[in-house]
Amino acid sequence: GAGVSQSPRYKVAKRGQDVALRCDPISGHVSLFWYQQALGQGPEFLTYFQNEAQLDKSGLPSDRFFAERPEGSVSTLKIQRTQQEDSAVYLCASSLAEGGEKLFFGSGTQLSVL
Amino acid sequence: EDQVTQSPEALRLQEGESSSLNCSYTVSGLRGLFWYRQDPGKGPEFLFTLYSAGEEKEKERLKATLTKKESFLHITAPKPEDSATYLCAVRKGSTLGRLYFGRGTQLTVWP
């Protein structure tokens, strides 16, 4: 595709449900990032992949958050037992080079936990 | 503690009224300062990367500059289509590509 694609665009979950958010990066991009953006805030780093290797997961807020990129392309961010404080926009970004000098962001998944 | 602070939080300009947005930072081992533009309901869009004090970059009506403690995004003769949130981010030498974002400046340009 022409850009980073994220699905679903919107997700409403009841508290305690598990959710899975998908990211299709630009083809051939080595680096993939997940960020969380609360309303009125800047994006906050969650995790970073270089190909299929998860090199930094220090931003994941709890062990309820899990991310994978098994074949070095599509990535999934999973949140178990969702809480109201998980409500935010989850942004995926990819970059051609290692380290991500120029990030291309998707439009995000807006998660609302009721 | 590392910090990225943007000011003002919001800015309203009349079309053609030039101004500047500020990003001040306190990070150890800066490995790049980034400016992004974000439209409502969209992800951030890359504008510039600056690496060293004194560096400047331009794109259309935008010009970014960098000093040892802050960066400015100058907007010359803005148009309504420049309305967006402008985000500043920094990368530290000790991290693997991770960006630390400020809260952004919401710019509105009215005709």
Give your account of this protein's structure:
The complex is a heterodimer of chains A (114) and B (111). Helices cover 0% and strands 48% of the residues of chain A. Chain A starts with a strand and ends with a strand. With 114 residues, chain A is mainly beta. The model of chain A has no long low-confidence stretch (mean pLDDT 95). In chain A, the strands form 2 sheets. In chain A, strands 2, 4, 5, 6, 9, 10 and 11 form a 7-stranded mixed sheet that branches. Chain A has a 4-stranded antiparallel sheet with strand order 1-3-8-7, with no helix packed on it. Chain A contains no helices and 11 strands. In chain A, β9 and β10 (104-105) form a beta hairpin. Chain B has 111 residues and is mainly β. In chain B, β4 and β5 (45-50) form a beta hairpin. The model of chain B has no long low-confidence stretch (mean pLDDT 94).
In short:
The complex is a heterodimer of chains A (114) and B (111). Chain A is an all-beta fold and 114 residues long. Chain A is built from no helices and 11 strands.
Averaged pLDDT of chain A, please?
Answer: 95
How many angstroms does the end-to-end distance of chain A come to? 33 Å
% residues in beta strands of chain B: over 45%
What class would the helix/strand composition of chain B place it in?
mainly beta
Distance between the termini of chain B: 41 Å
What is the chains' assembly state? heterodimer
| Total number of beta strands of chain B | 11
Overall pLDDT score of chain B: 94
The poorly predicted ranges of chain A are none
User: Main β-sheet of chain B: number of strands, strand sense, barrel status?
Assistant: 6 strands, mixed
The total of helices of chain B stands at: 0
Order of helices and strands of chain B: EEEEEEEEEEE
Quick tags:
heterodimer, A: 114 residues, mainly beta, 7-stranded mixed sheet, 4-stranded antiparallel sheet, 48% strand, B: 111 residues, 5-stranded antiparallel sheet, 59% strand, globular
